[in-house]
Design a protein that fits this description.
By secondary structure, chain A is mainly β. Chain A is built from no helices and 11 strands. Chain A has strands at about 5, 10-15, 20-25, 30-40, 40-50, 55, 65, 75-80, 85-95, 105, 110-114. In chain A, strands 2, 4, 5, 6, 9, 10 and 11 form a 7-stranded mixed β-sheet that branches. A 4-stranded antiparallel β-sheet of chain A has the order 1-3-8-7, with no helix packed on it. The model of chain A has no long low-confidence stretch (mean pLDDT about 95). In chain B, a hairpin with a 2-residue loop joins strand 6 (about 55-60) and strand 7. In chain B, strands 2, 4, 5, 9, 10 and 11 form a 6-stranded mixed β-sheet that branches. Helices cover about 0% and strands about 55% of the residues of chain B. The model of chain B has no long low-confidence stretch (mean pLDDT about 95). With about 110 residues, chain B is mainly beta. Classes of the chains: A mainly beta (about 110), B mainly beta (about 110).
Chain lengths: ~110, ~110
């Protein structure tokens, strides 16, 4: 089954404790992206990757890191989480970053930073 | 940077009534996509509009892309309880094919 998976689905952590949220897709998509969703703000892009070893900042990259060492995986790293990073995070992928390709979203990771 | 405004933020309708959500972009868009997110779920792609003035229909849903490619709307005829969720538009600016900017969404509640 074609899908985007994220782990963990739920995470409660404390300020400053490094964490990684994994994202994997099995559709051989080139383009992957991370979003955060906050009430009233919609989905805001954190980082995106056009292909392996190619990443770029989205609208709200501060406090986040990403890597794209393999085509299928695109982990999101919070080196020193803070309470303002409490949010619902979605990973998404598409065939390419071109304008005619739709994005497939993962199930989401709900993160709480105390 | 590019901004996509979406209204209304919330809409409550009685089952059987119509519903419309609107998106307006600060810049000309190369295309616009619409997504639906059920409560507790993830965004799911509905449709993409590319051409100026384009109108597409999916059963009771009608999507329009403005002539100037700066606005779009989604209209649902005779809402059903299965239409409940948040509807997002997402646009790509003409100058940046890589970044998709989402509107803040319209949360639809359908009262039986």
């Amino acid at each position: 089954e074609a899908q985007v998976t994220q782990n963990p689905r739920y995470l409660i952590t404390v300020t400053g404790k490094k964490l990684t949220v994994t994202c994997s897709q099995n559709m051989n998509h080139e383009y992957m992206s991370w979003y955060r969703q906050d009430p009233g703000l919609g989905l805001r892009q954190i980082y995106y990757s056009m292909n392996v070893e190619v990443t770029d900042k989205g609208d709200v990259p501060e406090g986040y890191k990403v890597s794209r060492k393999e085509k299928r995986n695109f982990p999101l790293i919070l080196e020193s989480p803070s309470p303002n990073q409490t949010s619902l995070y979605f990973c998404a992928s598409s065939f390419s970053g071109g304008e005619l390709h739709t994005q497939y979203f993962g199930p989401g990771t709900r993160l709480t930073v105390l | 940077g590019q901004q996509v405004m979406q209204i209304p933020q919330y809409q409550h309708v009685q089952e059987g009534e119509d519903f419309t959500t609107y998106c307006n972009s600060s810049t000309t868009l190369s295309n616009i996509q619409w997504y639906k997110q059920r409560p507790g779920g993830h965004p799911v792609f509905l449709i993409q509009l590319v051409k100026s003035g384009e109108v597409k229909k999916q059963k009771r849903l009608t999507f329009q892309f403005g002539e100037a490619k700066k606005n779009s709307s989604l209209h649902i005829t005779a809402t059903q309880t299965t239409d409940v969720g948040t509807y997002f538009c997402a646009g790509r600016s003409s100058g940046s094919a890589r970044q998709l900017t989402f509107g803040s969404g319209t949360q639809l509640t359908v009262l039986p």
